[in-house]
Amino acid sequence: EKFCKSMPKLELHAHLNGCISNGILERVPVFDRSGKNAEDNWISHENAVVQEKKTLDLAECFRTFAKIHEVIRTPEILHWVTTQVIEEFWSDNVIYLELRTTPKKIHNIPSKDVYMEKVVDAIIECQKKFPIVVKLLVSIDRKLSVLEGEENATLAIKWSKKFPNIVVGMDLSGDPSKGVFESFVPSLVRARDSGLKLTLHLPEVANALEAEQMLDFRPHRVGHAVNIHPDLGGTQKLWEILLTSRIPVEVCLSSNVLSKCVSSIDEHHIKYMQDSGIPFVICTDDSGVFCTTLTNEYQLAANTLLLSQDELKVLTLKSIDYSFGSPEDKDMLTAMVRGWWENRN
Ligand code: 5GP
C-alpha cells in the first residue's frame, strides 16, 4: 500500500462529481451572499450518509450521483469542489489527471458555459499550485436528448479551441439502461473530427449489440468492458473484437464490484485481459462514491494479478501512452515516472 501510494500515478477515468468524497462534502462552504448560516448547509450531512462504503447496485449509484448534484448549487461551489477533488488526487501522488464531467445548467448555475468556465478556472488554479497536469473531458450523459448531446459536443469543441491544453476529449457515460449510443454518433464524430479524443463507457448491463457498435466506432479508449468476455456475460465475437481492436480499457475494480457489475474481484475480467494482452489502465471511476483512491485501485490490481514492482512500473508507463495528453505532456510524464523509479532507493 505504502509503495503504491508513493508511486507517481495517472488517473484516466474520473467523473468530477463522483469524485467528491465525504471529506469534501463535509466541508462545502456556504458561499451564499444573502447571509444564510452554516446550518443551512444541509447537503453535507444528507449526502455523507449515502457514501458509506457499502455495496450499491447500479440504480443506487445513479441515485447517489443525483444527490451529489444537489450539492452543486452555485458556480462558486462547483469551482471549490473541483479544486478539492484535484487536491485529493494530488495528495495521492497522481501526477496526471483526466477529469470528466457533464456540463449542467442546474440550480444557480446559469448555463453550461458557466459550468465549463468554473471547472476550467479551478483546473488552471490547481495547476499553478500543485505539480499535477489536469485535463478535462466533456461528457454526454446518455440519458440526455440528442439535442443536448449536440450542445455538449459544440461546447467541447469551443472550449478545446480556447484551452487546447486542458479540454482534450469527450466521454459518453451515464445510466446504461437509458438512451441509445447510435443517436449520439453524429455529435461524437463531429468532436473527433475537430481533434478531440473519445472514450465510451461500454454498457455495464449486458447489451451485446451496443457494445459491438461502440467497439466498431473505434473510440480512443473504452470504459469498464464488463459483459464482454463469453464467460462473463459477453460473447466470443465481442471479446475478439476487443482483442483485435487494441483499444485500451479503463478498468475500475472497486466500482465494478461495489456496483455489482461483476460478482467479485476474483471474477473480474482484468485477469482475462492480462492473459490475452488487452491493453488496460487502472482507474478509480468515482473515488468519492466508491470511497477509494488510485493507490487502493493499484493495490487491488497488484493483489489480483500478483504484479511485481516492475510490472507496476510498466503499467504506469503504459497509462502515459493511453492518456489524451499531448506528445510534450507524455515526454514530461515519462521522464518523471522513469526518474522516480530510478531514484526510489
Ligand atoms: P458528473 O458528470 O456529474 O461530474 O459525474 C457524475 C456522472 O458521471 C453520473 O451522473 C453519471 O452520468 C456518470 N458516471 C459516473 N460513474 C459512472 C459509472 O460507473 N458508470 C456510468 N455508466 N456512468 C457513470
Automatic annotation (TrEMBL):
Q: Where is the Adenosine deaminase domain?
A: 8-337
The Gene Ontology biological process annotation of the record reads: adenosine catabolic process; inosine biosynthetic process; nucleotide metabolic process
One example GO MF annotation: adenosine deaminase activity
Catalytic activity annotation: N(6)-methyl-AMP + H2O + H(+) = IMP + methylamine
User: Which InterPro entries does the entry mention?
Assistant: A_deaminase_dom (IPR001365), Ado/ade_deaminase (IPR006330)
- Entry superkingdom: Eukaryota
**UniProt keyword list:** Hydrolase, Metal-binding, Nucleotide metabolism, Zinc
Family that this chain belongs to: Belongs to the metallo-dependent hydrolases superfamily. Adenosine and AMP deaminases family.
Name of the protein in its database record: Adenosine deaminase domain-containing protein
Q: What is the organism field in this record?
A: Allacma fusca
